[in-house]
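batch_manifest entry 22 of 60
target: 23S rRNA (Guanosine(2251)-2'-O)-methyltransferase RlmB
source organism: Hymenobacter oligotrophus
requested by: lab member K.T.
priority: normal
notes from requester: please return tokens only, no post-processing; we will run our own comparison against the previous entry in this batch. if the run fails, retry once and flag.
--- input ---
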Amino acid sequence: MNEGRPSYKKYPPRQQSAERTADMIFGLRPILEALHAGKTLEKIFLLKGQKHSLVAEISELARAADTPVSLVPIEKLNGLTRKNHQGAVAFLSPIDYAPLDNLLAGLFEQGKSPLLLVLDRITDVRNFGAIARSAECLGVDAVVVPSRGAAQLNGDALKTSAGALMRVPVCREPNLHSTIRRLKDSGLQVVACTEKGNESLEQATIDMTGPLLVVMGSEEDGINPDLLELADARLRIPMIGQIGSLNVSVASGILLYEVLRQRLVAPQQ
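--- output ---
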């Protein structure tokens, strides 16, 4: 087993450097210029109650780019930097997010059965990185995350992913519920991994060799009930220990392996 150096044979290198990190920028004008220049921002923090024309312009451009904006007290901003931030701090994303609809269309045009992974409110950056590493190794075509309520994609996430976040496209969507409905309409079956599943993974009857969307939930409370309702299958991982739950990155690896196993043994078309 080559744990230290995962294989990257599935995906060509993306047009970005592995050394690129989630750099901080601060000040209203620099953040505005970054947005105008089309830079991918991971998140923007603005001082709550601030009245300034540049704030309104930043908010409008961020909304158009699906960039999360949080209105925060001055203590939060001072905790991020001691420099003159002018009530505005942002983080440059270490990757460029992929447009989901274009990516999916490309996979279908290539004759592939897409395998997408939706992460519902995964907030721990190391969990996120570990999941991305498993996703790359097990054939996931893209990871889908919400614009808000997800782990910040930073250096820790990149390191934990062992480079996988440079290989697997990441798509950021403003509303996971509408996104999953749209993907179902495009022909993808939806499998949710949940402790409340009505089928055990080893006895699952769903065929996971076709176009598939796997949903994994929050470390705290699992998959949002609104998203669970959209699932074609709710699968639980069998366990015999006393703890009763798995780390979400471990659970993701187990379920994705089952998807890969089915695809490897399926008759070739």
